[in-house]
From TrEMBL:
Cleavable signal peptide: 1-23
Entry keywords, A to Z: Signal
Name of this chain's protein: CYTL1 protein
Record has Signal as a keyword: yes
Matches recorded under InterPro entries: CYTL1
GO biological process: positive regulation of transcription by RNA polymerase II
One Pfam family in the UniProt entry: CYTL1
Gene from which this protein is expressed: Cytl1
Length: 133
């Protein structure tokens, strides 16, 4: 009976450790990375939508690489773009881009490392196909 009790306590301790490890809060970097991917995918979905509004074609390209210093200018340009605000999807995308910019310049300023400042890479990115779901 004592052996069973020890095994049960060890199992509870192990499960508790696993739960604590998986519930760790996201880092600034992981939040910025996830949000940039979400924005890039939403923009791609918007452009490939069957019922795409013609003004979407005029939007600045929105490929985001948070390791490229030029991403800050790219976000500013996208948010400030004066057209397509009447479309809810574009307005929501601009709001996400504004949030990402704010997070990057305010909250994560010291945590981010830019590996390049190649603005052309954000205009003509090498895109890999999406992973199958």
């Amino acid at each position: 009976k004592l052996f069973t009790m020890k095994m049960l306590l060890m199992l509870i301790a192990l499960l508790s450790a696993v739960l604590l490890a998986s519930s760790a809060p996201p880092t600034c970097y992981s939040r910025v990375l996830a949000l940039s991917k979400e924005i890039t995918e939403s923009f791609r979905d918007l452009q490939t939508s069957r019922d795409m509004d013609p003004c979407v074609e005029t939007l600045p390209r929105l490929y985001l690489d948070i390791h490229n210093y030029c991403v800050l200018a790219k976000l500013r340009d996208f948010v400030a773009y004066p057209r397509c605000d009447r479309l809810l999807q574009v307005s929501a995308l601009k709001e996400k881009a504004r949030s990402l910019y704010t997070i990057m310049i305010s909250y994560c300023r010291r945590d981010l490392v830019f590996l390049t400042d190649d603005c052309n890479a954000l205009e003509n990115p090498v895109l890999f196909p999406a992973a199958p779901s």
